[in-house]
Amino acid sequence: MSSESSAGAALPKGWQVFAAKPDETTAKAVAKVLQEEMNPSQADASMKLIAKTLAERSARERSKLSRLIASQLRGDIARGFVKATAATRLAHSTVETPKEEVPQDKDVLHYLDLQLPKKVNELPEKTPGGRNRLVLEGLDLAAAGKVTVDLIALEERIADESDASTMGHLRKALELVTTIGGKPVTYSEERRTELASTVRDTTQEHIVEQIGFRAARTQRAGEGGLSTQNELAATYWRTNFLDTLQKFLVKLKTTTMPGPDDILVNSPRVLKKLAMMVDPKVLAGLTITPLVGTTGISVLSGTAQFASLDIDWKSILQELGATPSAYQLYELMDRDNEKPVTDFTVDTRADFVALITDSPFCRLQEIASQKSEPLAPVCAMVEHLVLGLADELGPQIFDTLTANALRSLGRLLDIVVAHQHNPSTAMRAVDLMMDEIGILVAAAGNYTWTDYRETMLQVMLERAPSIAPLAGKRIELDSHLMTSGMEALGTALWIALSSRHHDEVSRSTEKIDYYETGELLARLRKGETTTPHPQVLVATLNPSTPFDPPSPDELVATVRKSLLTHTKGAAPYALILDTTIQLTPSSTGGRSQLDVVLGGLKEDIADGRLEVFLCKSFQKYASFGTGKVAAGDLTMLSMKGNLASAFARAEALLQDLDLDLTGNDEAQLVIHMLRHGHRDELALVHHAAGNAKFVDEFCWPIDPKNRKLGSSYVEGIPLLLRGAPTGRVDKLFETLAMIDRRDSFSFLRTSYVGGIPGPYARINTGHESKESMVEYFYAFGHLATSTLPGAKAPSTTPVGLDPLKLDSVKEHLTALSLIKDTEGSLITRYRNNIVASYCAFGIQNVRPKPHMVPLLIAFFAESTGGVTIETQRYLARELFPWLQKDPIPADPKILTALYHAALILPSWSFKPFAAQLKLDTIGDSEQARRLRALVGKTLTG
Fold this sequence. Notes:
Layout: E1 5-6, E2 9-10, H1 15-20, H2 24-37, H3 40-54, H4 59-70, H5 75-86, H6 108-111, H7 133-138, H8 149-158, H9 167-181, H10 187-199, H11 205-209, H12 237-240, H13 242-249, E3 263-265, H14 270-273, H15 280-284, E4 287-290, E5 298-301, H16 313-320, H17 326-331, H18 348-357, H19 359-369, H20 376-387, H21 400-418, H22 423-444, H23 449-463, E6 475-482, H24 485-498, H25 517-526, E7 530-533, E8 536-540, H26 552-563, E9 573-578, H27 593-606, E10 610-617, E11 632-639, H28 646-659, H29 665-699, E12 719-722, H30 729-734, E13 740-741, E14 751-756, E15 760-764, H31 770-784, H32 806-817, H33 826-829, H34 831-845, H35 853-862, H36 869-879, H37 892-904, H38 907-914, H39 926-940
Parallel strand pairs: 8-9, 9-10, 13-14
Antiparallel strand pairs: 1-2, 3-5, 4-5, 6-11, 7-8, 10-11, 12-15, 14-15
Helix pairs in contact: 2-4, 3-5, 4-18, 5-18, 9-21, 18-21, 19-20, 19-21, 20-22, 20-29, 21-22, 22-29, 23-29, 24-28, 26-27, 29-31, 31-34, 32-34, 34-35, 34-36, 35-36, 35-37, 36-37, 37-39, 38-39
């Protein structure tokens, strides 16, 4: 749009001058008109028109001009411009720069006086399509001077690193990844080191300390470069936080510190909840003291005097959800420090506007809109979280840390869009972006306790619209931020039980859990229900170890049947529901499971017969597969004004207040995620579930009747259980070097959890491509079930996996080679990926490893097409160590394979191998010269 006005809106005076000569002076003139000569509504309309007008320019120009204007605006007008810009997408593709009107005297066609014929002959086959042959031929006659500038400009555009559609940008992004990957430290470590001096002795020191912290870190050793790392992270924070607690304690600045026999817990309220677990006499001997003030993280004392009773305090407190939040501890590291100094040399609002209008972010938006792209839901999530920073008051304007985080965010955006076809690398960058977004919202601190409750209400009513007409009128709905999903469940149990028969809550000190919690949790994981009290039912929307499809309708029927015995005036029946995994399966007719449950029970809630406690872990899918947060939510629904529910509501509120979490950095990120990305949570679950379905049906099919083999796909749930009848399943999964080993689920990249009773391992599918799923699981799955590729049933002779024999791998590859390619066949489509899968699983399990070298040589010589970069690089790194002892033969196939393997590796990764290769005997063939040149370039580059 280049007009001066549109639909009542007008571009400000001075706009044409600014558009013709964009600089600080002309931008200041435009800003002056917006801020001083227009009323707020006129300025708002004008800024929306400016955003639309700039969106028609190239992304590079749009970013430059938008930044100039943003840098001259202040106050509400500045915030309005940021929001208008964030709401406006680039009006054209980033790949195609919009055509601009060319003056007649500079039009090459006119300058050469060429007349276009009515019909142009077809181009020869070897001539690239789309070129104007008349122009190409006529250019030979063109005079030197300005006419040739167009060619120079074309070359400059191709090399333009700021344009995400150019080779220049791709080269820049690849160099960035190579630089990061070639360092012995992770990106997280580098960021903490880089920022340490910036935040030293300020209240932002702990924000930088959090970089790389994850609630359930990967257990793969040796991951460097583009990955997260934090020495304070545990394998699973809720259960293993003691592994790093001492490192936390030395950093705390508090007057109260725990003694050698004391236990840190998340709030003073834990003492009350312990009544469910221990004898009243034991409870009377315990004390609890907040580390600071009267709320938050506290010290539980007195447990040592009951050592003779053999009370398992660690297990009890874990199952109560009493583990202190890591972010509670982080907040205590610099509580007495000074606030950071205002830095007027930076303008983060202008930086932010430049970021969201520049080519990489626009390209990310395009990828997000391409539903067939594996990265689409991940990019959509990033898009919404970044644009959400325009909400509220926006980033902290004159803040050095914020400016630095935005620059890092820009670098990571470059990596994501450049690795559109290498999702594993892109998702590593996305994981790191969550740290930068966390810094931005923590430094700003815009969100409040009220924001959390209002946001949760909005999300709840969107996912369960059936209760919307009653919410606030007949149904009271209150949400409370917890330190974990387990704490939400423990708190709900305490409230439900203590508000009914308090005397029945106290337990003796024998070795039992509160109402057999271990059994309760085991049932929840399988999707079953349990009743710890005649009026209390505990259930889950979806299990984390799925075997059978959950039925929200059956749950409603179970609750309503129990309500038949409810008498007027009695305490309401209580339903405690784990809602961590929320779906909208086809069986519900397009309704969410949550809507089916709450819609079916809304009248019972509104009439006071039923209280519902919804418990959710934010560490799972709600944190978008990053595990950056560990918090949870407890939402209570009860009859409005019902005195019989007053105690329960008061206890939930007091727990919330005693935790005092909403001022923490974690709460800022949780609220930001909920407000701007709650729909992405469901989209990510759906996408990951598609990969689980694919693995179950093609990569690792099993007999659904034989549960020793695992669980079949349950619609919408991105989790599969798998066993290995002829091997030790945990040991075999440990060898799968390309997937993460975690103690939790829901991460962006595919992972697994071992030690599941059965024995099983739980596959948690991520957002990689279908090709990656084949490479990860096809060989393992078909060998584990003794099923040859293409076969409909297992072989009569089981394949031994412990140890795996080379002959078994060869037998499967031979069977694959005998299958003819047919249109539409998945084997045809993924043939090379299947070969790569057998190579990977073979090198991981066949012993001795050198026996696999001929298969790896054959793969790199013949079968790399369509195989993911991640898998090729893994196999190349496995191949080269076995080729350094003896001279390389002059076999063309071997030389071709080594060239391909070397070419796929980054130079920093190949260099140590290149130095050890003995090439004196490879001859002087074309293949030999090519390999020798590549090795030489690597060693001297």
